[in-house]
Amino acid sequence: MTDQPMPDRDARPDTHTAGDARGHQHDAGAPRHLGEVIVTASGIEKYFGSHHVLRGMDLEVQRREAVMLIGRSGSGKTTFLRCINFLEEPTVGYIEIDGLRLDADPLHARSRAHQEQIRQIRLRTGLLFQEFNLFPHMTVLGNCIEAPTRVRRISRGEAVSVAEAYLEKVGLIDKRDEYPSRLSGGQKQRAAIARALCMEPKVLLFDEPTSALDPELIGEVLNVMEELAHEGVTMIVVTHEMHFAREAADRVVFIEDGTIVEQGPPQQVLDDPHEEATRSFLRRFLDT
Amino acid sequence: MTVAVGTPEPRSVVAQVEAAQERARTAWRLKFAATWVVLIGLILIGLGATGNIDTGFISEWGPFIVGGTWLTVLISVASISIATVLALLGAFGRLSSNAYINGVASLYVSLARGTPLIVQILFVYLALPQIGIVLPAIPAGLIALSFNYGAYMTEIFRAGIQAVPRGQREAAEALGMPERLIVRRIVLPQAIRIVIPAIGNEFIAMIKDSSLVSILAVEELLFRARLVGQQNFRSLEALIIAAAIYWILTIAFSQVQQRLERRMARSDR
Q1: H-helix segments, chain B
Q2: Cβ pair A105, A48 in contact under 8 A
Q3: Do B174 and A195 touch (CB under 8 A)?
Q4: What value, to the nearest 5°, has the Cα angle with vertex B100 and ends B99 and B106?
Q5: Which pTM was predicted?
Q6: What is the rounded distance in angstroms from the CA atom of residue A180 to the CA atom of residue A139?
Q7: For residue A196, which residues of chain B lie inside 8 Å, CB to CB?
Q8: Taking Cα atoms as reference points, which of A180, A247, A186, A172 lies closest to residue A215?
Q9: Is A207 exposed, middle or buried (0-12, 13-18, 19+ CB in 10 A)?
Q10: Maximum alpha-carbon separation in chain B
Q11: A79: number of CA atoms within 13 Å, CB side?
């Protein structure tokens, strides 16, 4: 496997083409103008058997906002993220994304109607996994056009040109015909980001996108994510990268024992936490 | 031989080591091949020395026995194909959350694996006519072989489908792909890659088990060998010819299979 350094993004003038085409402004540095609420999670509770993992979580995310979920492993942040696109069916509560509300219905989770609703929610979200989960039997480009052509049913030609724009953005256009097995971990995750973007989701959900990466490959993925955040791509990110949260987040949410303990701008939550639980988490985090 | 003074040049050492390893590999292969040639030669000479081998019979009836090869191959290919379809259906049945579908598939697997293949062959040909289902010998043989192998292959396919990482399905779900598309485009292609070696083994077994349909008087390899061998009291020659052909067929297919696997390993993963 070849570990390529992150391409120098300033050297590529057309880096932001795809984002601009979707109407995102690129105003790095200037404060972002957040829009209306686009994601609402309300009263989300989740039991795994008798284990009460989420104890009533409420979160509203505005268009163009980058929200980072932090907390100990086992605090429920990943479960919460997966509840947002119903990869985990919440026990109670509802999710609303871009005007489509779906109530948790674990009793009829497998019913056709509910599954179709879930699919509609998922079409509004893009999810990035720790383990990337690229399709190994398809090339990078194949991964990117699979869902657009077969789910959105756009023409192959159009799907390819959209995919190429996003691959360009994540710096992988020269890998478009490679199979995932030939990519480094960082390249795989960037390809997965391009694949998610190709479905034009309303919000990107990241589930610890760099925890499976070798340390030297983390930066290239975080750079891409930070760039997306600055362009105004709405995102909810479960992360342990505090430095990244400080740089790219509009809001940091600290989760413990399945509840939101504290949230606010990154400077406030990370540097001047109000809650003792947050302080203790950050202290332990900085020590290790 | 000149003795090098000081440190030897590393690259020349590597070259020497590699050359030595290559020589050793070649020698090993030669010895291995020689062992086979000698053993097989000894067996043939031993048989010849008994004075009981009738070369006249071999040249007269050999071609007739060999002529059964194509039917053996045809039956094997047809049965493995039908069995593959049955196995796919069976695997999804065994993985179904629907109790009826799962029940049907599980009963099929249990029945087909729990009774002898030869009983199944005879049942289709001899027992079914009693309830009005009369089948010619070849179709009866095909049905019995497919039925039996389909059950074993059901379990192979089921394991293959379950071996596709859970994250693959989740990634497809997260992209909004509907269930059918996930199965057809994401799960099955990966499952098939996983099970291809096992299906190859089943095919090899099928080539040999196809000989069982000779009891239905299907004129494949073994039937022909038994026919002319018993008529001429030359079963030794006849069965050696049949056995040799089965052996050659399985060796040839193993080679094809190895090449196929190597090519697939190269394309990805």
Answers
A1: 10-49, 55-66, 69-95, 99-114, 117-122, 137-163, 166-174, 179-181, 188-209, 221-231, 235-267
A2: no
A3: no
A4: 85
A5: 0.81
A6: 7
A7: 174-175
A8: A186
A9: buried
A10: 92
A11: 26
Instruction: List the single residue in A with minimal CA-CA distance to B178.
Output: A119
Q: Which two tokens stand for residue A265?
A: 């701008």
**How many whole angstroms separate alpha carbon B127 and alpha carbon B162?**
37
Question: What is the β-pairing status of strands A235-238 and A66-70?
Answer: parallel
Which of B169, B175, B269 to probe by mutation at the A interface, max A CB count within 10 Å? B175
What are B97's two structure tokens?
């959350």
Place of tokens 């589930």: A207
Q: C-alpha B235: how far from its chain's center? A: 26
Give the model confidence (pLDDT) of A102-159 as tens digits: 999 999 988 999 999 999 999 999 999 999 999 999 999 999 999 999 999 999 999 9
What's chain B's Rg over C-alpha atoms?
A: 26
Whether B266 and chain A come into contact, CB under 8 Å, resolves to no
CA A286 from centre of chain: 24
Six token digits for residue A24: 């995102």
The conformation of residue A189, written as its DSSP 8-state character, comes to: H
Taking alpha carbons only, the member of B163, B118, B220 closest to residue A136 is: B163
Which two three-digit tokens encode residue B58? 């071999």
User: Is the separation of the CB atoms in B210 and B75 below 8 Å?
Assistant: yes
Say whether A125 and B189 touch across the interface (CB within 8 A).
Answer: no
Q: Specify the DSSP element, H or E, that contains A61.
A: strand A51-62
| CA proximity to A242, closest of A126, A32, A71 | A71
Inter-residue contact A92 to A213 (CB < 8 Å): no
> Burial level of A288, CB count in 10 A (0-12/13-18/19+)?
exposed
**Separation between Cα atoms, residue B269 and residue B264, nearest integer Å:** 9
pLDDT digits (tens, 9 = 90+) for A71-102: 998 999 999 999 999 999 999 999 999 999 99
In one-letter notation, the amino acid at residue A179 is Y
Residue B98 with chain A: CB contacts under 8 Å: none
Count of Cβ atoms closer than 10 Å to residue B50 Cβ = 8
As a whole number of angstroms, the distance between CA A68 and CA A263 comes to 10
